[in-house]
Amino acid sequence: MSAALDRMLGALADPKRRRAIELLGERPRSAGELAGALGLAPPAMSRHLRALKEGGLVEDGHPTFDARVRIYRLKDGATAELKQWIAETEALWSDQLASFKRHVEGGV
Question: Which InterPro entries match (predicted)?
């Protein structure tokens, strides 16, 4: 497993961060909007957003009308490596379970 995938899984380990991902899946939002929706203080939301950025899941930008505001959005293609790892792991387990079933049924 790569270090980037480890960071991504670490970022997704927290339920507040997973909920933030769900909210960002609906539309881009400011940190203040996310904090309000999650019932978090701004410093706590900032820490969660930093973890999501370091995990490669979200990115931020400034709207043209106000450079003081950051708008967060899901990063395109961020979960490609995660999806590949899950597919490979699922295939491994399927093969192992099929082999075990053959063994138990006497087909070795």
Answer: ArsR-like_HTH, HTH_ArsR_DNA-bd_dom, WH-like_DNA-bd_sf, WH_DNA-bd_sf
